[in-house]
Amino acid sequence: MDIESFQKDLIEWFEMEMRDLPWRKDQDPYKVWVSEIMLQQTRVDTVIPYFTRFLEKFPSIEVLANADEDQVLKAWEGLGYYSRVRNLQSAVKEVHEKYEGQVPDDPKEIATLKGVGPYTAGAILSIAYGKPEPAVDGNVMRVLSRILLIWEDIAKPSTRKTFETAVRGLISHENPSYFNQALMELGALICTPTSPSCLLCPVRDHCQAFDAGVQNELPVKTKKKKQRPVELVTAVLKDEQNRILIRKRPESGLLANMWEFPSAEVSIEYRSEKEQFKEYFKEEYQVDLSLGDMVGRIEHVFSHLIWNIHVFSGELQGDIQEGPALKLVKAEDLKEFAFPVSHQKIIKQFIDLEK
DNA sequence: TAGCCGTGGCT
DNA sequence: TAGCCAAGGCT
């Protein structure tokens, strides 16, 4: 492999073909940081409108550091992996207080920030600061597994080190930013998971997999397990003033700190799910309920589980104590709170926002 | 290490 | 349709 020739072909292709993306307008470390967090496990087309809105609302480290977490979560609503943005704000606060608002350019320091792992650290260091650090994501592993004919299982966490070592040997010290971005862009546009466009590839002549005709056999990636089904009852509960009861989820775990309609996991047993829910609710809030028939069901698929939500409507039979994590709100005000998509579906299908 | 942690688009 | 996949990180 002629490394200089490879770098040249790759970077020249990137300069010609790179997409015009909102986070490529400058190299502001904060913007690069926000974009890299949003792009984790998320498609470019999905991220674009969120990125633009997020930077309008939180244009600087100082603004985000001082922002209300509920507003931050609201700006992330629908993007998924919500701990990303809670970690981001936490890390931004640390940069604001400990580093005088300057994102560290030191590999060891930046790696200590919450939510900044090996990939994101390398991406910020190379793109914002021009440092020759590897930024190994799924694209890079796929592309390099083909070019270098690496048969290790990229689903194994330990495999990333192999690719980091490979990148350290290949990366352009003249333009580490473009080198890393070009590798990812190539993975997104040409060297795709299925049916790669090898005939359009700028580095085809350097690709061992193409040379051997095995580009469709790489990368090696073991399958993931199926999602576990979970049965849930969720109730849209109103008081005598027609206000709807919502609550905030716990500060850790699934959908942490997001809002939802009261819900309980039920088991398939002899007792009806309606009775199980009323019992749960009474125990949790010391208030009785009158529940009607099930108004519908919603299936929502997560990475590791499937919610099968049985939706009921009902009325609160007594006064309930509101608090920071429990509120009675008018239907028209639901839009002020950050709900996961599963509960946005409930709002859309079962709640009249005019009433 | 492997499981947890979202969502929407594509095949 | 069911599975797979996308610029990962945390525990």
Q: Helix/strand-derived class?
A: alpha+beta
Strand order of the largest sheet: 4-1-6-5
Q: What is the count of distinct domains?
A: 2
Oligomerization state of this entry? single chain
How many beta-strand segments?
7
CATH homologous superfamily identity of the largest domain: Hypothetical protein, domain 2
The description of the largest β-sheet is: 4 strands, mixed
Quickly name the level 1 CATH class of the largest domain: Mainly Alpha
- Radius of gyration equals 24 Å
Number of helix segments? 14
Short characterization:
The chain is built from 14 helices and 7 strands. It has helices at 3-17, 29-39, 44-57, 61-65, 69-76, 83-98, 107-110, 118-129, 138-147, 159-170, 176-189, 208-212, 273-285, 341-350; strands at 228-238, 244-248, 259-260, 263-265, 289-301, 305-316, 326-329. β5 (289-301) and β6 (305-316) form a beta hairpin.
